[in-house]
What we know:
Elements (H helix, E strand, L loop, with lengths): L1 H15 L4 H8 L3 H13 L4 E4 L5 E4 L12 H10 L4 H4 L3 H14 L5 H10 L24 H10 L1 E7 L8 E13 L2 E8 L2 E6 L3 E10 L8 H13 L5 E8 H11 L18 E8 L15 E5 L1 H40 L2
Antiparallel strand pairs: 1-2, 3-4, 3-7, 4-5, 5-6, 8-9, 8-10
Amino acid sequence: MKADRLLSILLLLQTRGRVPATELAERLEVSVRTIYRDVESLSAAGVPVFTERGRHGGINLLPGYRTDVTGLTADEARALFVLSAQGAHSDLGLDGALGSALRKVMAALPAPHRPAAERVSERILVDPARWMQNSQNSQPGAAGGPDLGELQYAVFADRRLRLRYRHSGTPAPVEYTVDPYGLVNKAAVWYLVADLHGEPRLFRADRVLTAETTEEAVRRRAGVALGEVWAVLREQVERMPKDVPARVRVRRGRLDMFLRIHGGRVTAPPPDPGAGPAEEWVELAMAFPAVAAVRSLLAFGADVEVLAPPAARRELARAAAEALRLYQDEVRPHQDEAGPQALGCARTTSP
């Protein structure tokens, strides 16, 4: 819209001083001719704007023409610009709105606070995605479900939602009609917080196959806010069963990588990876949410061994046997070829 573009030009000029028309056109995605027409409109409205020709020319405001936000501290200004690095606004389709809002804030900041606020985006980067997570697949809707638009609409319109939802480990989707409280972004994953039959429930947005806003008004519990419901649900999730303790030994040469991946499960200070030969074994105390979780250690092959408990060793043995059955046709020919040679060597070296 033209009004928004005129305001953006004004705020950019207040922030930057002289700005070439070509740069304004590029940033606002219009032609240079349109920028000059907008400058004429600003001038006609009483804004003291003028142009300078030449190699170092551009569009200027008369000195002193600005509005300060009084009382905003340097730390408050930096905090606002850290917000722009969080990434949640991208999922909600608010990239453009946030950029526009930050330009307005920057233009209105007291001059002494501007450099610190500008440096935040150059010095602070927040990447909310977990390690080894494909950013495209981590977004709601990437697996075929809806984006957050319909969920947002129901939340703000105070309407009930009809969902087709796929639970973890169950192939068939389930249909629900829920009463939404709001959306929560937790560790780069979006959740819908809602009541189902009057009880608080948590729905991962990327498991919602379809979402439809109904005409029925939402039926939230009286006096209950999103923050309260989220606190209850978060406590339920974090109140996990007692972890299974385990003793594991790792070859020192692989310890550094092992700790990068599984360090969160190590329950005692680990040894220094570089304090001995690579083939040396080092022991670690670990904890797993379930015995079956030790299967993740198979990625390290023969460089990691679970020493205890026996149930964890049996679990890994079963997992290894399952993998062997899948690939036994590939293993058997090599064993047959090597067998006679190996037996011959054994005979010549036996006493």
